[in-house]
Write a sequence for this structure.
């Protein structure tokens, strides 16, 4: 084949590829390594953030223990229970429930509001007034109700208008229940003689619902009387919230409330943490990029070391939290239940107290998970290395482009020379 038939660009490409292959492979390997590590660290950051949020949810209220509360008369009252409630049986008789005070003022269709005067309202010793001269002309009862509701110094009254036939009613309701929140009113007339209508309505106001406190009797014998302005009783039984629904008749039996410890709920909380911890450790150990990285291994080691410490002078294994032979964290239901029945407060201190397991884990993760922490710095370092490799690749590509052009020029010149020689030889 004559040399003149060879494509210089093809030859230049082949020779350039041979020359650049070695460094291309090195740069590609570096780029893959840093890209993979950066991706792994971004995923790890998300997992650590989720773990930190979980730990904070446990330590925020320092409450791990769980109880259940049941009642034999749900129609009379409802109960909610917190972790600090004490197990026991309680009897409550609901003598009366708390009510919002409600009054109505009646007006005939022929009654009109005056153009002036002060409509005064008092709730729980605090007064405010509506100046009728500030209402729009012809505003009527609806305008008065709106003015009451929007008054900047409204001390706790909600107003609305109800109509029936030829009569209209201004209905006033206290925003808060309880005997102390009774509404009283007065009208101070101005120059407009129409003030007599509203004055008569105030004088003849009707009580629709009395302001009253809730009254309950706690105990079967020599009962304790408890009064409350609200139907939600939060401090009667420690750790138990009681929502009163209706009053009982004198012949009714007291409501039975039973508070019990719920070790299953505690176990479910702990298993949620254990599952999160195991998933995080597996993420590090199963990812070759992370498993071979010093900082990632350090995170794993620091967390594991937290489980080797004593809390309240007691190892975690004694309450059922331990690693199996494969290094997987688990919860022993029987040990945990036994420890909870023996000393529940100690278990809570061991796990969610200020010096407990979760607080320690939270503190150990803080340097990594905070906004400008070590995870961010690590990713910035990896990104900088990746950028450096990318820049090296660009410079290498430019250098190889120059080599390619040099080869093209050389092979083109060689082709011209060989063509000339072939032309000369053909003359002999």
């Amino acid at each position: 084949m004559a040399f003149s038939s060879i494509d210089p660009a093809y030859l230049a490409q082949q020779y350039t590829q041979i020359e650049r292959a070695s460094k291309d492979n090195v740069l590609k390997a570096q780029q893959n390594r840093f890209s993979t590590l950066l991706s792994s660290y971004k995923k790890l950051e998300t997992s650590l953030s989720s773990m930190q949020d979980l730990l904070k949810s446990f330590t925020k209220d320092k409450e791990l223990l769980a109880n259940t509360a049941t009642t034999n008369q749900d129609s009379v009252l409802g109960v909610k229970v917190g972790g600090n409630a004490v197990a026991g049986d309680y009897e409550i008789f609901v003598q009366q429930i708390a009510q919002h005070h409600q009054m109505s003022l009646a007006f005939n269709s022929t009654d009109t509001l005056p153009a002036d005067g002060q409509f005064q309202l008092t709730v729980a010793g605090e007064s405010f007034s509506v100046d009728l001269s500030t209402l729009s002309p012809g505003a009527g009862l609806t305008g008065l109700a709106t003015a009451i509701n929007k008054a900047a110094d409204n001390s706790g009254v909600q107003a609305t208008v109800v109509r029936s036939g030829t009569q209209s009613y201004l209905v006033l309701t206290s925003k808060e229940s309880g005997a102390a929140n009774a509404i009283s009113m007065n009208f101070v007339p101005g120059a407009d003689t129409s003030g007599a209508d509203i004055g008569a309505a105030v004088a003849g106001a009707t009580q629709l619902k009395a302001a009253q406190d809730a009254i309950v009797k706690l105990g079967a014998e020599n009962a304790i009387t408890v009064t409350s302005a609200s139907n939600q009783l939060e401090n009667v039984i420690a750790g138990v919230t009681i929502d009163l629904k209706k009053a009982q008749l004198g012949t009714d039996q007291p409501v039975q409330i039973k508070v019990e410890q719920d070790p299953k709920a505690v176990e479910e909380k702990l298993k949620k943490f254990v599952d999160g911890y195991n998933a995080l450790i597996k993420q590090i150990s199963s990812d070759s990029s992370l498993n071979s990285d010093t900082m990632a291994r350090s995170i794993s080691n620091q967390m594991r070391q937290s489980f080797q410490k004593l809390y309240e002078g007691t190892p975690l294994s004694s309450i059922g939290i331990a690693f199996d032979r494969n290094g997987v964290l688990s919860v022993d239901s029987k040990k945990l239940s036994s420890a909870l029945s023996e000393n529940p407060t100690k278990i809570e201190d061991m796990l969610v107290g200020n010096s407990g397991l979760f607080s320690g884990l939270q503190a150990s993760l803080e340097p990594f998970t905070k906004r400008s922490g070590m995870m961010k710095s690590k990713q910035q370092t990896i990104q900088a290395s990746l950028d450096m490799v990318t820049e090296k690749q660009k410079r290498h590509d430019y250098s190889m482009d120059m080599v390619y052009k040099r080869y093209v020029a050389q092979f083109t010149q060689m082709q011209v020379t060989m063509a000339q020689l072939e032309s000369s030889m053909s003359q002999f």
The first strand starts at residue 67 and ends at 71. The mean pLDDT is 90. Residues 8-59 form the longest helix (52 residues). Residues 12 and 405 are 8 Å apart (CA to CA).
